[in-house]
């Protein structure tokens, strides 16, 4: 997906993504749940400038150059002239982005358009009536309706309604494996759960930990539950929870997934000290790259991490496959979990809705998609496949694109979907489950009670 120049889905350069990936991606939800959202301010919304100028807030990282070029194109376009609106991009440093957005959205200087993470990151704004529901707009406009991979377009939804348009690259969770280790042990990457368990047994016999896991950070453990629940019961299981039904934690698929986690832990699939190993200090990637662990379930940025820290391993021995099927499960094996992309949303108080919508259409253009590819990202546009030959690693980029393009459903990372307050509490319960401090039934009961 990304070169060593690549960028995170929240906007940090690769080097700092490995330091604080979840803080970046979770920041959007962290401060939205605090006060200030219902302040009405005065005037008609927007930046406070003239009627023809709309303000767009964007997360200020190196990838913002793509949005800057998009603004320049729009401001010179016939659409800008027709709608009588131009965009002024306001680049906000990453650490300041969410608090500044929250404050601005409760004031007369609210942006007309703003960058976000979808799901839980925009739920407070939707509940406060501060977002334009784009569902009908998208469905009635072929550029927006057909311009994006459907599973990505819908991943940032709230209760089945569109409030955003994709505007950055995709970040699915992928099962990475060490080609050298697999070749030496005469193993094949697992396509079924039984094959995965069989590989685990053979790897342990050879003195190799099956999976690297940065358990000290908690969020890498979440990826296992996300895929297990999806493969066992399908995306509807978590969708129920995301929509506010806490009893969904008691779904048989959730119970079974928790039991499978316990079995993996008890069987030594992650080694004996994974709870003290972190991803954020590159310990888990190092365990994987140095052959002490054969596989690593991680977001697609793992390629960039390895290329930056262990370039020879990344170029020669890093392999990747989809998460395996689980026998008897009802979830589609093509489904994906992770961070689909980032989104542009429109403030309900914008001064010029037509101009804002016209601006969002540029994200579906080939020129926009090519800029993402050149930056090391994999676009979520339906026209991106033909552009990937120019990606830093075409094979890897095409694998990701096909994985997501063929997925009937792309489930947004649970912590992002739930928002930071619930997501943090959920991380704690997941950490207890993986550490053996709570049983599967205790885990389920605790999550049912999260508020």
From TrEMBL:
Gene3D superfamilies listed in its UniProt record: Periplasmic binding protein-like II
SUPFAM superfamilies, A to Z: Periplasmic binding protein-like II
Protein name: Sugar-binding protein
Species whose genome carries this gene: Streptomyces poonensis
């Amino acid at each position: 997906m990304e070169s060593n120049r690549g960028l995170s889905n929240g906007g940090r350069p690769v080097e700092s993504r490995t330091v604080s990936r979840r803080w970046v991606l979770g920041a959007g939800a962290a401060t939205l749940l605090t006060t200030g959202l219902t302040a009405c301010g005065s005037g008609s919304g927007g930046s406070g400038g003239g009627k023809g100028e709309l303000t767009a807030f964007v997360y200020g990282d190196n990838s913002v150059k793509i949005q800057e070029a998009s603004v320049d194109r729009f401001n010179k376009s016939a659409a800008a002239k027709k709608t009588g609106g131009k965009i002024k991009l306001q680049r906000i440093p990453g650490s300041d982005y969410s608090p500044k957005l929250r404050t601005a959205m409760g004031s007369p200087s609210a942006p007309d358009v703003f960058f976000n993470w979808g799901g839980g990151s925009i739920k407070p704004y939707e509940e406060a009536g501060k977002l334009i529901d784009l569902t009908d707009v998208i469905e009635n406009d072929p550029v927006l309706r057909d311009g994006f991979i459907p599973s990505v377009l819908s991943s940032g939804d709230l209760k089945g309604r569109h409030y955003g348009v994709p505007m950055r690259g995709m970040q699915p969770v992928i099962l990475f494996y060490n080609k050298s280790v697999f070749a030496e042990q005469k193993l094949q990457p697992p396509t079924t759960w039984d094959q995965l368990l069989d590989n685990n047994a053979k790897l342990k016999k050879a003195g190799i930990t099956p999976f690297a896991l940065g358990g000290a950070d908690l969020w890498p453990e979440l990826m296992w539950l996300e895929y297990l629940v999806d493969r066992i019961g399908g995306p509807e299981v978590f969708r129920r929870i995301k929509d506010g039904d806490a009893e969904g934690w008691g779904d048989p698929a959730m119970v079974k997934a928790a039991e499978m986690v316990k079995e993996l832990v008890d069987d030594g699939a992650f080694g004996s000290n994974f709870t003290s190993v972190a991803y954020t200090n590159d310990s888990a990637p190092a365990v994987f790259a140095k052959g002490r662990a054969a596989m690593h379930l991680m977001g697609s940025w793992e390629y960039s991490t390895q290329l930056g820290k262990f370039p020879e391993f990344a170029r020669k021995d890093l392999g990747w496959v989809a998460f395996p099927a689980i026998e008897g499960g009802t979830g589609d094996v093509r489904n994906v979990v992770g961070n689909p992309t980032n989104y542009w949303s429109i403030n309900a108080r914008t001064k010029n809705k037509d101009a804002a919508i016209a601006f969002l259409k540029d994200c579906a253009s080939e020129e926009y998609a090519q800029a993402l590819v050149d930056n090391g990202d994999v676009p979520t546009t339906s026209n991106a496949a033909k552009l990937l030959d120019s990606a830093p690693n075409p094979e890897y980029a095409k694998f990701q694109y096909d994985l997501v393009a063929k997925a009937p459903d792309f489930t947004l990372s649970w912590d992002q979907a739930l928002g930071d307050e619930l997501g943090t509490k959920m991380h704690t319960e997941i950490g207890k489950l993986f550490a053996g401090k709570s049983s599967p039934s205790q885990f389920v009961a605790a999550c049912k009670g999260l508020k």
